Amino acid sequence: MPMAAAVLPLPMSLPMPLPKKPLPAGRPREWYIAHNRRLKTMRLVIALLDSGVYDPAQAGNGRIRATADLIGVHPPSDVTCRMVRALLGYGR
After folding, report:
1. Each residue of 30-51: b (16+ CB within 10 Å) or e?
2. pLDDT at 79 over 90
3. Pairwise pLDDT comparison (4 vs 75), residue with the higher score
4. Which residue would you say has higher pLDDT here, 20 or 27?
5. What confidence category does residue 22 fall into, taking pLDDT thresholds of 50, 70 and 90?
6. Cα distance from N-terminal residue to C-terminal residue, the chain
7. Using CA atoms, how far apart are residues 89 and 28, in angstroms rounded to an integer?
8. Distance of alpha carbon 72 from alpha carbon 35, whole angstroms
9. Which residues lie below 8 Å from residue 84, measured CB to CB, with a gap of 6+?
10. pTM above 0.85, yes or no
């Protein structure tokens, strides 16, 4: 009976970004704005979850904007901050 190799967890460092693909052409400008806002929201939610923020009440605008600065994205608008809190609340 062969021995199974021990699987060691890989050390986590900064996430490797996926290669960027061009967005589809011909959409209205509002579509691109909403798409990029959703991407920023996802990045912020992932960073907040990694830092231990699981409750929308813990994620004030100041904390979300500080996290954005930490991960290197532009400071989010109030609308994006509301989207971050809403997405954090979906898992509850």
Report:
1. eeeeeeeeeebbebbbebbeee
2. yes
3. 75
4. 27
5. confident
6. 44
7. 30
8. 19
9. 41, 44, 45, 48, 59, 64, 76
10. no
Query: Amino acid identity, residue 23?
Result: L
Amino acid at 40: K
Rounded average pLDDT over 46-50:
92
Which bin fits 73, alpha (ψ -120 to 50), beta or left (φ > 0)?
A: beta
Distance (Å, whole) CA 77 – CA 79: 5
User: Which single residue is written with the structure tokens 């960073």?
Assistant: 47
Tokens 């830092």 appear where? 51
H-run or E-run covering 40: helix 29-50
Among left, alpha and beta (phi > 0; psi -120 to 50; other), residue 72 is left
Give the orientation angle of helix 78-90 with respect to helix 29-50, to 10 degrees. Answer: 60
pLDDT, residue 24, reads: 87
